[in-house]
Design brief:
With 335 residues, the protein is of the alpha/beta class. It is built from 13 helices and 13 strands. Bound molecules: tryptophan.
Length: 335
Amino acid sequence: MKKLFQIVAATMLISASALSLAACGSDKVDSNSGNGGKIIEIGIVQIVEHPSLNSIREAFVARLAEKGYEEGKNIHIDYQNAQNEQTNLNTICQKFKADRKDLVVAIATPSAMAAAGTLTDIPVLFSACTDPVGSGLVKSLDKPGGNVTGTSDAVSAKKIMELAKRITPEIKTIGALYNSSESNSIAVINELKEFAAENGMEVIEGTVTNTSEVQQATQSLASKVDAIFSPIDNTIAAAMPIVTQVAENAKVPVYVGADSMVADGGLATYGINYVKLGHETADMAIEIINGKDPGEMPVRTISDVEIYVNKKTADAIGVTLPEDVLSEAAQVFGE
Ligand code: TRP
């Protein structure tokens, strides 16, 4: 009896979600759409504007177009940016819910957490979340379950620190610069602490809660440490030009989690290619648009990481980038 009930309940659930997918599309009809005339409504929510998140979004939209999903033809994209404010994130996600979007794409962890918390019967596809399990977005990377899946930009703090030691071997104290409320940063900082313990380094914390605190936190760290480490943190990334200026004046190397932070003046990273990540996210979006259940789609990661360095920053702080690092680098900024 119990089993029968479970089967009936499961069937009802399946038909209910099929119904809601069919029902939540818009009424707009376009004869060129190639999608039965239906325009698919996609909401994109992004926590803040910084170069990396922008490039993910641009790559996502470009890949969709390449695969025949074009704005005004068969999709409509409603892009909203939260200006790094949690309350804006909630408002945006509530609006997407009321609009009954067919798919919500959430770029970066804070947006993904808001979308996953608000939207329970609309597929949520996150992009560039460093720690989707630790952030509570999915139960596991292989089997997300629920209505949420996406792409992760997990990187290794240990690999970045090994690179740091190749460039500036004499690091005894390392400053950890990050926003303590970004769960994407926490896991990476924990790994940094492990590395430091194994290598006899001391970690000094410099946490912030918003971009206006970044200058002060960087200044304070720069006077105490041999190098600064900043993970893939949205708040720091959005204030990277300030970090660069302060660190250059103090002649302190800043090792970071993402290529865009190196482009903005960080000294080096071992990072992933975010354009590739945007493309992967678009490929997953197309699968969901075509009826795949997000809960059944494993979270995708980018396995190849590459070295990015900034020559201008190195010159400004009086560091010589080793030849082998330069020749291994995928990109040398500031040449
Ligand atoms: N990984 C970040 C998160 O989980 C988002 C992100 C993507 C990011 N690219 C970045 C943050 C570059 C800083 C710099 O929220």
